[in-house]
C-alpha cells in the first residue's frame, strides 16, 4: 500500500502603506498569505502581534478572523494556488519620533508539512519622523524711548533629522508696543493673532521673522 504525505508551501509577504509616518498618523499593514501547494493547507494560523509603538485600530481579513490582543489570524483552509490577505490599521503612538518600528508576520500553524520554511515569515519597517525645532529671539534695542521703533527678530531652526511640515510659531506682541510691519523669510505673519505660518523647514534649515513695532 502506498501513501502520499500532503504538503503545502505557505509563504507570507508584508507591506506597510507609509514607511515614514508622523506620530498620530494611521498606517495600514497588508499581509498576504499564499499557498503554492501542491495540496490544500488546513487549520492555518498566522501570527502578527503589533509591536510597541503602534496601536491597533481595525482589521479586515479576506477570510478567517484576527484577534489583535494575541496577534492570531485564524485563516482556516487555503486551497492550492490561493491567497488570503489581512489588512491591519494602526495609529502611531506619541513619543515614538525617530524610532524604527518593525512588524513581523509568520505562519505558526498548519496541518500539512511545509518543506520551504524560509518564506514563512516577513517583516515591514517604518521610521517615525521627528524634527527638533528651536526658537531664538532678539530685539535690536532693549532700552528704547517712548515712540521709538524697535525690531524683534525671531529665528526658527530645524535640527532634524526630518523636514518639519505645517510649522506654526506664535508671537503675539505684548501690551506696551504696537505693531507696524513684518518681514518673514518664508510664510506669512498675522499680527492680530500672532501666528507665523512658516510651512516647511528642511533638516538643518532656518527661517526668520522680523517684526517692527513702536
Overall description:
- The protein has strands at 8-16, 26-38, 41-47, 54-61, 65-67, 72-78, 83-92, 100-109, 121-127, 131-139, 150-161, 164-170, 179-184, 188-190, 195-201, 206-213.
- By secondary structure, it is mainly beta.
- The strands form 4 sheets. A 5-stranded antiparallel beta sheet has the order 5-6-3-8-9, with no helix packed on it.
- The N and C termini lie far apart (103 Å).
- The model has no long low-confidence stretch (mean pLDDT 97).
Report the strand count.
Answer: 16
Oligomer designation: single chain
Please report which band the strand proportion falls in: under 5%, 5-15%, 15-25%, 25-35%, 35-45% or over 45%. over 45%
What strand line-up does the widest sheet have? 5-6-3-8-9
Q: Regions with pLDDT < 50 over 5+ consecutive residues?
A: none
What topology does this entry show?
Elements: E1 8-16, E2 26-38, E3 41-47, E4 54-61, E5 65-67, E6 72-78, E7 83-92, E8 100-109, E9 121-127, E10 131-139, E11 150-161, E12 164-170, E13 179-184, E14 188-190, E15 195-201, E16 206-213
Antiparallel strand pairs: 1-2, 2-7, 3-6, 3-8, 4-7, 5-6, 8-9, 10-11, 11-16, 12-15, 13-16, 14-15
Please give a quick description of this structure.
The protein is mainly beta and 214 residues long.
Properties at a glance:
16 strands; mainly beta; 4-stranded antiparallel beta sheet; 214 residues; 59% strand; 5-stranded antiparallel beta sheet
Amino acid at each position: 500500500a502506498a501513501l502520499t504525505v500532503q504538503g503545502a508551501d505557505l509563504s507570507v509577504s508584508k507591506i506597510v502603506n507609509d514607511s515614514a509616518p508622523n506620530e498620530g498618523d494611521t498606517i495600514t499593514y497588508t499581509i498576504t498569505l499564499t499557498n503554492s501547494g501542491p495540496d490544500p493547507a488546513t487549520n492555518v494560523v498566522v501570527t502578527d502581534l503589533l509591536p510597541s509603538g503602534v496601536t491597533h485600530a481595525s482589521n479586515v481579513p479576506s477570510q478567517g478572523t484576527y484577534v489583535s490582543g494575541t496577534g492570531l489570524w485564524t485563516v482556516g483552509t487555503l486551497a492550492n494556488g490561493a491567497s488570503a490577505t489581512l489588512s491591519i490599521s494602526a495609529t502611531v503612538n506619541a513619543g515614538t519620533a525617530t524610532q524604527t518600528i518593525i512588524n513581523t508576520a509568520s505562519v505558526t500553524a498548519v496541518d500539512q508539512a511545509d518543506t520551504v520554511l524560509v518564506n514563512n515569515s516577513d517583516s515591514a519597517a517604518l521610521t517615525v519622523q521627528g524634527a527638533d525645532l528651536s526658537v531664538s529671539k532678539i530685539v535690536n534695542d532693549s532700552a528704547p524711548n517712548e515712540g521709538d521703533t524697535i525690531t524683534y527678530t525671531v529665528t526658527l531652526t530645524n535640527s532634524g533629522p526630518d523636514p518639519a511640515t505645517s510649522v506654526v510659531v506664535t508671537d503675539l506682541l505684548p501690551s506696551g508696543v504696537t505693531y507696524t510691519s513684518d518681514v518673514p523669510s518664508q510664510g506669512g505673519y498675522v499680527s492680530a493673532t500672532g501666528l507665523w505660518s512658516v510651512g516647511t523647514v528642511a533638516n538643518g534649515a532656518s527661517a526668520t521673522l522680523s517684526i517692527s513695532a513702536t
